[in-house]
């Protein structure tokens, strides 16, 4: 199973600019609930390969990006469509919630 890549701010700007649909998981190594969400994000990355870019941002290494999007607690997953935030999912949830939100955007 492939894992969603960790990216920095420069890579974030590039990915948002070159992909219509992007899923960003805001996470940190010390966050317990993030460890529950991480395999779900990795699965999303694998199952939606070619349809959506799925990435992770370590908030400790990239503090400006989460501030820009008003992230106050993690895990937080933002879905971008053509550069705009269209979904925000905060906290632990099921894989189905993530995949259903992504499917909605693919149909939009």
State the gist of this model:
The chain has a single domain, classed as Glutaredoxin. The chain has 4 helices and 5 strands; from the N terminus they run βαβαβαββα.
Tell me what you see in this structure:
The chain is of the alpha/beta class and 108 residues long. The chain has a single domain (5-107), classed as Glutaredoxin (3-Layer(aba) Sandwich), CATH 3.40.30.10. Helices cover 41% and strands 26% of the residues. The chain has four helices and five strands, in the order E-H-E-H-E-H-E-E-H. The protein has helices at residues 9-18, 32-47, 64-68, 95-107; strands at 5-6, 21-27, 53-58, 76-81, 84-90. The protein has a five-stranded mixed sheet with strand order 1-3-2-4-5, covered by helices on one side. The longest helix is centred in the middle third of the chain and has 16 residues, at 32-47. The mean pLDDT is 95.
Key attributes of the depicted protein:
108 residues, Glutaredoxin, 4 helices, 41% helix
The span between the termini is: 28 Å
The helix content is 40-55%
Total count of domains: 1
Number of helices: 4
Oligomer: single chain
Strand order within the widest beta sheet: 1-3-2-4-5
CATH class: Alpha Beta
Give the CATH superfamily. Glutaredoxin
Low-confidence stretches: none
Shape, please?
globular
| Portion in strands | 25-35%
Main β-sheet description: 5 strands, mixed
Strand/helix succession: EHEHEHEEH
Which class best fits the helix and strand makeup? alpha/beta
CATH architectural category: 3-Layer(aba) Sandwich
Rg (C-alpha, Å): 12 Å
Q: What is the third-level CATH name, the topology?
A: Glutaredoxin
Mean residue pLDDT: 95
